[in-house]
Amino acid sequence: GAFAVQGDVVVFSNYSDQRLYKQTIGDNSPLPLTPDYGGSVVRYADGVFDPHFSRYVTVMEDHRKSSSNPITTVAAVSTSVEDVNEPIVLLSGNDFYAFPRIDPTEKRMAWIEWSDPNMSWDKAQLWVGYFSSKGEVEKRICIAGGDPTIVESPTEPKWSSKGELFFITDRQSGFWNIYKWDEQSNVVVQVYSLDAEFSKPMWVYGVSSYAFLGNDDQSQKIVCCYRQNGKSYVGLLDHDSGSFSKIDLPFSAVTNIVSADGSFYVEGASASLPVSIAKVH
Questions:
Q1: Which residue, 44, 43, 37, is CA-closest to 84?
Q2: How far is residue 132's CA from residue 37's CA, in Å, rounded to a whole number?
Q3: CATH architecture of 3-203
Q4: Cβ-count burial of 178 within 10 angstroms (0-12 exposed, 13-18 middle, 19+ buried)?
Q5: Residues 244, 192 contacting (CB under 8 angstroms)
Q6: Where do you find CATH 2.120.10.30 in the chain?
Q7: Does the pLDDT value for residue 239 go beyond 90?
Q8: Mean pLDDT taken over the chain
Q9: Tell me, what's the pLDDT at 155?
């Protein structure tokens, strides 16, 4: 099932019972974090660690009241206590949620939400919420998708190491391009314009079409995959200067990109190469 790693700790959703478990690398026995509901009636996905409050923030789908019409929320699960506790709901009221992402200061959280009958790629909203001293989401701001005159489907919010919020949306040209939110002015700015798709429909949770390279002391760049005329490419975007260059890789289909320690990793394939994971320095 879905999982996330922080340091030497992994939290994962177990397929057979759909409970969340925590396991430290080297330990043989995982510890349950969520209650046993007698089957896979409560499910979890797209989770991230929240170190400030010693918890795991995740999308939760609750089928206990209705198997055909579950309640979807964003919930917090404690990772610091040995006792199993009921998850605490942080966000509720809409039909679907995805991409809960906590900023480096651990004071803000971005997320995507949308309403039935829309799919997330039809019409969605990007929000940012501010945590209270108790870890509740108090102040909320709709960053994209709240203007009734603009139909858009924002997706993949990510915080840079500098605390800047980037995301992908199709608000102007109809193509999914990369944008940035200026918190001080509350203005959304397009980082780079190209008639190409920098994301894809969210058939599954955890899509990652771009990643940050560099650190606070460097000019941070964005490595990203994009699609034109049915073929995938990988590009490098300097969002400070606005320069963009294509990276030559032997893949015609690229699905995910992540970065670590100055390198990035690509999941790709071609007519002559099976699905592979490549490390690029």
A1: 37
A2: 30
A3: 6 Propeller (2.120)
A4: buried
A5: yes
A6: 3-203
A7: no
A8: 95
A9: 99
